[in-house]
Amino acid sequence: MAEDTEALIRAWYAAFDAGDREAMLALLAEDVAHDVNQGPREVGRPAFREFLGQMDRCYRERILELVVTVDGSGTRAAAEFVVEGEYLATDSGLPPARGQRYRLPAGAFFAVEGGRITRVTTYYNLRDWIAQVAG
Fold this sequence. Notes:
- The protein contains 4 helices and 6 strands, in the order H-H-E-E-H-E-E-E-E-H.
- By secondary structure, the protein is of the alpha+beta class.
- The chain has a single domain (about 1-135), classed as Nuclear Transport Factor 2, Chain: A (Roll).
- The protein has a 6-stranded mixed beta sheet with strand order 2-1-6-5-4-3, sandwiched between helices.
């Protein structure tokens, strides 16, 4: 079970890097809970689709140095990684975008049930990101 969960999380990030949002969405439970960094919890695949659309409008990112850890039951996982990106369009409430590049350590926590991701909680240091793009 733990091996299946690790493969699921790695497939999630492979789809992210490939820009394959439909493949990402297919790995989510219909009622997935998404804890947005510095934001509210959003529930459901449609909300996650909207989130991905906003991200794609404002950012171009790839994941580097991915490390995945899974508990023995395969129901919980964590990923640690570095996000390398470019700020493409100004996101609401954030500094103006001018194509700034950034490199940011980040992490995510997952709950998994029935071979699908049921929760995604993402964390990165927003102040670090703002300092990188504001300079």
